[in-house]
Amino acid sequence: MRHRLWFWWSVAGTVATAAFYLLARDGLASNLLYNAVGLCSALMILVGVRRHRPRRPAMWYLFAAGQMASAAGDLVWEYYVFVLHQEPYPSLADAFYLASYPPLILGLVQFVRARTRSDGESLTDAGMVAACLGLVFWIFVLHPTAATTSPALLEKITSIAYPAADVVLLALLTRMFVGAGARSPSTRMLGAAALLLFAADAAFSVLSLHSDSDGYELSAGWLLSYVLWAAAALHPSMKAEAATSPASGTGISRGPVVLAAVCSLLAPGMLFVPAAGADLIDRFAIATVGITLCVLVFLRTRGLVRKVHGKNAQLERLALYDDLTALANRRHFENALSRASAHGSPQVIFLGLTGFKNVNDELGREVGDDVLGHLAARIRGAAPAEALTARLGGDEFALLLPGDSTSTAEQVAGALADTLREPIHAGGNELLVGAGIGIGDSTGAAGPAEVLRRAETAMYAAKDTGEPFRHWSPALDERAGEQARLGAEIRTALDAGQFRVVYQPIVAVPEGRVIAVEALVRWEHPERGPISPAYFIPVAERNGLVVELGAWVLRTACEQMVRWRHEWGSAAPDRMSVNVSARQLARSGFPQTVADTLAATGLPPACLTVEVTETAVFQGGRAVEALHELRALGVRIALDDFGTGHSSLGLLRTVPVDILKVDKSFVDDITGAGEHRVIAEALIHICAGLGLTAVAEGVETAEQAEVLYHLGYRLLQGYHFGRPTAEVDFRPKGSSLLTYADTGGGGSSWRVG
Questions:
Q1: Distances (CA, A) of 305 to 122, 178, 319, 482, 555
Q2: What is the pLDDT of residues 218-253, one digit of tens each?
Q3: Which residue spans within 526-600 are E strands per DSSP?
Q4: What residues have CB less than 8 Å from 426, skipping those under 6 apart?
Q5: Is the Cα dihedral 641, 643, 645, 648 positive or negative?
Q6: What Rg do the C-alpha atoms of the chain give, in angstroms?
Q7: Would you say 505 and 728 are in contact if contact means Cβ atoms under 8 Å apart?
Q8: Sequence-separated (6 or more) residues with CB below 8 Å from residue 81
Q9: 653 to each of 48, 640, 682, how far by Cα in Å?
Q10: What is the structure's pLDDT at 245?
Q11: Which of 162, 253, 543, 617 has the fewest CB atoms in 10 Å of its CB?
């Protein structure tokens, strides 16, 4: 109720205005009601100031004083009419009426200064409107009033004072409504109150010139003006310190142009008014206002021209520069590369970030943008002064070196690699984001686009090999072309069923039982013959076909495991190990794919082991979440090739691991007394302490098997126990490790992932 006081006051004031016309005209009751509305308006303004306590109450006190003076004038006039039975003009009532204008005007001046924009554009617009309206007011109200009043000096001064005060009020209203920015409800009500007061005064002046009306019909305007002054003070928004919105500085609309055109035509248009065109004083006023408008229109036009230039500059910057990093964008870079290629042999350095997607996924876009800002600053700092630095895309940057010096390009690339090795502090995190760096030159290039393509190709090659940076060479294009053709052939091989799954046993020693098998994929090309997984798996990883290939291997292996359990019974292996790539783990639906496969084949989740590499899970994120979901299904997790990736023991805390597979590189020299044996021994102790199952991979000789057994390993895998094959013999081979014949050969089998 307290916050709606302004509303109920407005309702009561509107009802009182209607009641005024229902009472007898010129009766005491109607006049007392009129006076009550005026007095209550002044009191309600004080109530509003007391309730809302604005930081600048002075203008509201001025408004209250103005309303009080006007109400006092009403009371004095009623005394003349109903007590003295006189209607003098001018009278003491006119003194109070005129005294109400200065505080109202001063209050509006303070309001305008505090709550409207003071930029040159809005001031010019307000000046044009005020000049036009002032000219109209002069011709139709002020000048006729001054010309038709009686010779008595006091009456002439009084008659002119009213419209003169209205002229000042008109100027302030123009400033309030032209270029005033955003308006609060209190501001709108205040403007409406002043506008009603001006309109009623102006209408009364016109009526007085052309009729004997006493202004009874206009009383609603003055009454509602009283009501709105108080409602503006009672509304909670009156305490807002400022209700303006900043000028956009860039928006260009038709409004200013139309306003300037209309204002410039109004002054000469007044010459066609018969009374004005024939009067010397009016013609002088029209000429004065016309000159003033010409000056204001010129100033406004110059402002519009400046705004157009500013808009063009802003659009050019938006078109050529990156908003986030303030570096040149791809369009700017390509244009500069075209110009540099036309006059020389430029070099291009291309940077592609690694691991940046995980930053966005795990920490959010805001942190990711912060990281890009830091990286952009580092890249700009490492670049020579003459180089153009650009952000080409989400996580791709490039440098344009106008010279053709290969050594300079290598020095810059080396400096970039060094500066990117330092961690970045963003969002309360210490982050390490690497990058692949490629260098492309313009020697023999068909065009600027070819130079950029060369640098990008070299960047991808650097990512593949782990080099700090890589130069482009024709061999890289041949390799890229071959990989593109191979990717298409992988698609065909999947559709034609050219892939097959083979299985390598994992043996428990010393009893010699095959306790598990690992599923490995092979490609029998109809023309090339067997293709090494080392060749086609990386290609499938890059083009995404590894997801479909991995799903096929998973289903095939699970179906085979179900058949073996049915055929071999208790002699069948306990688990089937299937390798999973980083690309598969990154897919949000991968755990569901595993669950669906287990349900479709009928294989219990405890019989499936998912093998992942350290690299696939090192950066956390979606990959680790997927492993937790698989663990919740009952699937076991094996960390494959342990010790060859990032080798972080922290993975054993963050990743849900059941099995640790020690890489073949630590087994090859296990029979000696070197560091490999020490590492292998340390790893078996780590597994024992953490409750993990250890599997030694790449066991090729009986001597290696025996040493591993004495170190504590009880699960071994390698050529000594059997090569990968489509069918595995699960019959026990006896209790001696040496009953397995060394089948020869070397190297571990390649697998998906």
A1: 15, 20, 21, 58, 70
A2: 899 999 999 999 999 999 988 875 544 444 444 555
A3: 529-531, 575-579
A4: 363, 367, 370, 371, 374
A5: positive
A6: 45
A7: yes
A8: 31, 87
A9: 65, 16, 17
A10: 45
A11: 253
